[in-house]
Amino acid sequence: MSLKNQPSENNVYETERLIIRPMSVDDREFIFELYNTPKFIKYIGDRHIKTVEDAENYIKNRFLPQIEKLGFGNYLVVTKDKNEKIGGVGIFEREGLDIVDIGFSLLEEFEGKGYAYEAAQKVKSIGMDDFGLKKISAITSKDNFSSQKLIEKLGLKFKNHVTLPHEDEELMYYETE
Questions:
Q1: Average pLDDT of the chain?
Q2: Is the dihedral of CA 135, 34, 46, 62 positive or negative?
Q3: Which of 45, 54, 89, 113 lies 20 to 30 Å from 146 when distance is taken between CA atoms?
Protein backbone atom coordinates (compact mmCIF):
# COMPACT_ATOMS: atom_id res chain seq x y z
CA MET A 1 0.00 0.00 0.00
CA SER A 2 1.55 3.32 -0.94
CA LEU A 3 0.82 6.10 1.48
CA LYS A 4 0.97 9.82 0.68
CA ASN A 5 2.61 10.54 3.99
CA GLN A 6 2.91 8.92 7.34
CA PRO A 7 2.10 11.24 10.21
CA SER A 8 3.76 10.16 13.41
CA GLU A 9 1.78 8.30 16.02
CA ASN A 10 1.86 11.50 18.08
CA ASN A 11 -0.52 13.18 15.65
CA VAL A 12 -3.55 14.57 17.40
CA TYR A 13 -6.55 15.63 15.35
CA GLU A 14 -9.40 17.93 16.28
CA THR A 15 -12.98 18.49 15.22
CA GLU A 16 -15.35 21.13 16.47
CA ARG A 17 -16.09 19.25 19.71
CA LEU A 18 -13.54 16.45 19.86
CA ILE A 19 -9.88 15.58 20.20
CA ILE A 20 -8.89 12.41 18.34
CA ARG A 21 -5.55 10.84 19.16
CA PRO A 22 -3.95 7.42 18.72
CA MET A 23 -4.75 4.92 21.48
CA SER A 24 -1.94 4.27 23.95
CA VAL A 25 -1.37 1.93 26.88
CA ASP A 26 -2.48 4.83 29.11
CA ASP A 27 -6.00 4.16 27.78
CA ARG A 28 -6.13 0.62 29.19
CA GLU A 29 -8.77 1.38 31.87
CA PHE A 30 -10.96 3.07 29.28
CA ILE A 31 -10.63 0.17 26.80
CA PHE A 32 -11.47 -2.25 29.61
CA GLU A 33 -14.65 -0.26 30.32
CA LEU A 34 -15.68 0.32 26.68
CA TYR A 35 -15.02 -3.21 25.44
CA ASN A 36 -17.09 -4.69 28.27
CA THR A 37 -20.23 -2.62 27.73
CA PRO A 38 -23.27 -4.72 26.77
CA LYS A 39 -23.67 -2.93 23.42
CA PHE A 40 -20.00 -3.43 22.48
CA ILE A 41 -20.22 -7.14 23.22
CA LYS A 42 -23.56 -7.47 21.42
CA TYR A 43 -22.72 -5.52 18.26
CA ILE A 44 -18.93 -5.74 17.94
CA GLY A 45 -18.07 -8.84 19.89
CA ASP A 46 -16.50 -10.13 23.06
CA ARG A 47 -12.79 -9.40 22.86
CA HIS A 48 -12.20 -11.41 26.07
CA ILE A 49 -10.80 -8.41 27.94
CA LYS A 50 -11.49 -9.48 31.51
CA THR A 51 -8.89 -7.35 33.31
CA VAL A 52 -7.17 -3.99 32.85
CA GLU A 53 -4.01 -5.98 32.08
CA ASP A 54 -5.89 -7.76 29.26
CA ALA A 55 -6.83 -4.32 27.91
CA GLU A 56 -3.20 -3.18 28.03
CA ASN A 57 -2.08 -6.30 26.18
CA TYR A 58 -4.84 -5.81 23.58
CA ILE A 59 -3.59 -2.27 22.96
CA LYS A 60 0.04 -3.46 22.73
CA ASN A 61 -0.71 -6.44 20.49
CA ARG A 62 -3.54 -5.14 18.29
CA PHE A 63 -3.59 -1.34 18.18
CA LEU A 64 0.06 -0.27 18.40
CA PRO A 65 1.48 -2.64 15.74
CA GLN A 66 -0.97 -1.35 13.11
CA ILE A 67 -0.23 2.30 13.93
CA GLU A 68 3.50 1.55 13.70
CA LYS A 69 3.06 -0.34 10.41
CA LEU A 70 0.55 1.89 8.61
CA GLY A 71 0.57 5.20 10.52
CA PHE A 72 -3.14 4.97 11.30
CA GLY A 73 -5.31 2.70 13.39
CA ASN A 74 -7.47 3.04 16.48
CA TYR A 75 -8.00 6.49 17.95
CA LEU A 76 -9.31 7.62 21.29
CA VAL A 77 -12.17 10.12 21.16
CA VAL A 78 -12.10 12.81 23.88
CA THR A 79 -14.47 15.74 24.39
CA LYS A 80 -12.85 19.16 24.21
CA ASP A 81 -15.13 20.78 26.77
CA LYS A 82 -14.67 18.29 29.63
CA ASN A 83 -11.68 16.23 28.45
CA GLU A 84 -13.75 13.05 28.84
CA LYS A 85 -12.80 9.82 27.10
CA ILE A 86 -15.99 8.86 25.29
CA GLY A 87 -15.11 6.25 22.66
CA GLY A 88 -12.89 4.88 19.99
CA VAL A 89 -12.84 5.24 16.23
CA GLY A 90 -10.40 3.78 13.77
CA ILE A 91 -9.46 2.34 10.43
CA PHE A 92 -8.41 -1.27 10.71
CA GLU A 93 -6.81 -3.98 8.64
CA ARG A 94 -9.17 -6.87 9.25
CA GLU A 95 -8.71 -10.52 8.35
CA GLY A 96 -11.23 -11.46 5.69
CA LEU A 97 -11.57 -7.95 4.24
CA ASP A 98 -9.54 -6.68 1.29
CA ILE A 99 -10.23 -3.03 2.08
CA VAL A 100 -9.48 -1.34 5.41
CA ASP A 101 -12.50 -1.06 7.65
CA ILE A 102 -13.73 1.95 9.62
CA GLY A 103 -15.19 1.23 13.03
CA PHE A 104 -16.48 3.20 15.99
CA SER A 105 -17.86 2.70 19.47
CA LEU A 106 -18.91 5.07 22.23
CA LEU A 107 -19.83 4.72 25.85
CA GLU A 108 -23.62 4.58 25.93
CA GLU A 109 -24.11 7.91 27.70
CA PHE A 110 -22.43 9.70 24.76
CA GLU A 111 -24.51 8.07 22.01
CA GLY A 112 -27.08 10.08 20.08
CA LYS A 113 -25.17 13.37 20.28
CA GLY A 114 -23.43 13.19 16.88
CA TYR A 115 -20.01 12.38 18.38
CA ALA A 116 -19.59 9.07 16.53
CA TYR A 117 -20.34 10.70 13.17
CA GLU A 118 -18.07 13.67 13.91
CA ALA A 119 -15.18 11.38 14.90
CA ALA A 120 -15.73 8.84 12.10
CA GLN A 121 -15.98 11.58 9.45
CA LYS A 122 -12.64 12.98 10.65
CA VAL A 123 -10.93 9.58 10.70
CA LYS A 124 -12.32 8.76 7.25
CA SER A 125 -10.80 12.00 5.92
CA ILE A 126 -7.49 11.24 7.68
CA GLY A 127 -7.38 7.87 5.93
CA MET A 128 -8.32 9.16 2.51
CA ASP A 129 -6.67 12.60 2.51
CA ASP A 130 -3.56 12.05 4.66
CA PHE A 131 -2.86 8.41 3.76
CA GLY A 132 -4.23 8.24 0.23
CA LEU A 133 -6.65 5.38 0.87
CA LYS A 134 -8.81 4.94 -2.23
CA LYS A 135 -11.58 2.99 -0.50
CA ILE A 136 -12.79 2.36 3.02
CA SER A 137 -15.19 -0.37 4.04
CA ALA A 138 -17.40 -0.89 7.08
CA ILE A 139 -19.13 -3.89 8.57
CA THR A 140 -21.99 -4.08 11.03
CA SER A 141 -24.51 -6.55 12.34
CA LYS A 142 -27.91 -6.73 10.69
CA ASP A 143 -29.69 -5.49 13.82
CA ASN A 144 -27.38 -2.54 14.57
CA PHE A 145 -29.55 0.07 12.88
CA SER A 146 -27.84 3.13 14.38
CA SER A 147 -24.48 1.91 13.05
CA GLN A 148 -26.00 1.26 9.62
CA LYS A 149 -27.37 4.83 9.53
CA LEU A 150 -24.02 6.30 10.54
CA ILE A 151 -22.13 4.23 7.94
CA GLU A 152 -24.51 5.41 5.23
CA LYS A 153 -24.23 9.03 6.46
CA LEU A 154 -20.44 8.66 6.02
CA GLY A 155 -21.11 7.98 2.34
CA LEU A 156 -20.55 4.22 2.30
CA LYS A 157 -22.96 2.05 0.34
CA PHE A 158 -24.21 -1.42 1.21
CA LYS A 159 -22.60 -4.02 -1.09
CA ASN A 160 -23.33 -7.50 0.29
CA HIS A 161 -23.19 -9.76 3.31
CA VAL A 162 -19.92 -11.21 4.59
CA THR A 163 -18.82 -13.61 7.28
CA LEU A 164 -15.34 -12.97 8.67
CA PRO A 165 -12.89 -15.83 9.30
CA HIS A 166 -13.47 -17.60 12.64
CA GLU A 167 -16.88 -15.94 13.02
CA ASP A 168 -20.42 -17.24 12.59
CA GLU A 169 -22.44 -14.05 12.20
CA GLU A 170 -23.21 -12.79 8.72
CA LEU A 171 -22.49 -9.05 8.64
CA MET A 172 -23.56 -6.21 6.38
CA TYR A 173 -20.62 -4.98 4.26
CA TYR A 174 -20.37 -1.38 3.03
CA GLU A 175 -17.81 0.42 0.86
CA THR A 176 -17.03 3.92 -0.33
CA GLU A 177 -18.00 4.46 -3.98
A1: 93
A2: positive
A3: 54
